[in-house]
Structure formats: structure tokens, C-alpha cells
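Hi L.,

You mentioned the student needs an example of a multi-chain input paired with its predicted structure. This one should do, with 314 residues in total across all chains.
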Amino acid sequence: MNVELSPDSITLVDLGIVRLNATVVYSWVVLAVLVVGSALITRRLTVGPQVSRWQSALEALVSILRSQIADMTQQNPDRYLPFIGTLFLFIAVSNLLAIIPGFSSPVSSVSTTAALAFCVFIAVPVYGVMARGLKDYLRAYIQPTFIMLPLNILSELSRTLALAIRLFGNALSGDILVAILIVIVPLFVPIVMQLFGLVIGLIQAYIFAILATVFIASATRD
Amino acid sequence: MEETTLIGIVSIFTAGLTITIGSIAPAVGEARALVQALASIAQQPDEANTISRTLFIGIALVESCAIYCFVIAMILIFFNPFWDFFVSQAGG
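Structure written out for the whole complex:
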């Protein structure tokens, strides 16, 4: 049985010098869905009594994100909303689009999750310095004593790795489970597992966003 | 016994062992966390939001141990570097 473990190994477009694998193409598809969808919905925003269906859906989403971030950070959520919200929406949409046949979620490639985790890795010091100043932020690394410096740096690196591997492993395990079930029981059971995978995908998007928020909040707070 | 056969046997056995032990421990830990969270929600239903969010974060952190084991098991089965090395040596 030849299981295609990673969408990296599937080549969709071959232009000779440039070869685009499935991860890149499907990431672009997700980005296009997000950008075009948001642009179409926010083109006709109203504050009147008659609010369109899509606008209220989007408003509900944004207000949920804002309240969650405000609960986690105990700060004004507007500064973190663009970053955290984008992470959540990208992971959630790429997991939800997996119900389309032929679409393989870009999140089940370790390069995508590593890129997302790297964004968090960069964003934590950026937000930390913005909120507390460079000196105060760097001082947190030698708290409580100077001996803790290597451990603090190590924890910074290892949680980034954990963030990437967690998302990748969850998406991959869902894919492999469905692939194996299709071989064993091709009727009905894979569909149930696919539905279960959708729920898992949403929860993973939520957890990724929440963990990013926690990391950022711990860097911005004294 | 040939090297590839030996590597195959050891890899499959180790992959099974990895995922077995690696899933038991996080399962026990997560179950304990869940029990405690349910008891807390039953005691203080008002705090259900905070408790369940913290539970999610904690479970996600514990879960990463199981995910590491899963990834290692997958590497052992599908991307085994020793297997690839010996197969390429036998071929070339």
C-alpha cells in the first residue's frame, strides 16, 4: 500500500524550472478563499437594521475571537486580533476544505505547520518588545536568576517545535486513519471518521490560536 | 539473517511499542485532567468557560507527547532512514 504521507510529494503544476507541489497550490487556494470571501462580504457593510446574513456571520466570528483573546490576555484584543485571527482562520479553513474531494489540507505537510509555528516564534518577541520595551523584554530571560538563561531560550525553541509537530501530527493521523479505513471497510466508516476529522481540525485550529495567544500574552505581561 | 529483514522486524516492532506506550501515558494523564475539570465544573458552573478553555490548553500540551510518539512510529514505518540506506546500498 502506497500511502501519500505528505502533500509535498504530490506535484500538481510542472512548469519546467518551477514545480509546484500540492502544499503550495492548496495553500494558495485557502488564501484565495479567505481573501475573496472576506472582500465580497465586507464590500457592502451596513450598520442599519437590515444586516446581510454573511455580515452577521463574520461579525459573530470576529466578536468571538475578540472575546477569547481578551479573556486570555486580559488586554485590549485589537492589537492581537489580526495575527491570531489569521492563524485561526487559515488553519480552520484549510482543515474544513478537506471535505472537498481531491483537496489535501496544506496543514498535513510539516513545512506549512513549521512556517506557522515560525510566525508565532517571531511574533512573540515582536509583541513583547512592543508592549514592554527591549530592555524589559530581554530581562525576562534572566528571571529569576541568570542561570535560567539557557533553559528559557531552550523552552522558547522547544515550544515552537511542539506547536509545529502537534498540528502536523493531528492532521496526518486523521489522513492516515481515513486512508487505512478505506482499505479495510470502504463503506460508511471512513465518512464518519472524516466528519470526526473535521471536528478535530477545528479544535486544532482553536488550540493553535489559543497557544499562540498564551505565548504572546506571557511575553507581554510582567 | 539479512540486514534488511532484521531492520524491518526491529522497526515494525519498535513502532508498535512506541505508539502503545506513548498512547497509554497521555491517555491516563488526559483522563485525570478531564475528571478534575468535570468535578470543578459541577462545583462551579459559572466558571465553566475558563475551566474548559484551560482544560483544552492543558490537554493539547499533554497530547503532544502522544503526537511525538505517533510521528516517530510513522517515521519508523514509512521514512525509515536505516531501511532506505540499506536498500539503496543493495540496489547500487
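You could point out the following to them. Chain B touches chain A at residues 49-50, 53, 56-57, 60-61, 63-64, 67-68, 70-71, 74, 78-79 (CB under 8 Å). The mean pLDDT of chain B is 87.

Best wishes,
N.
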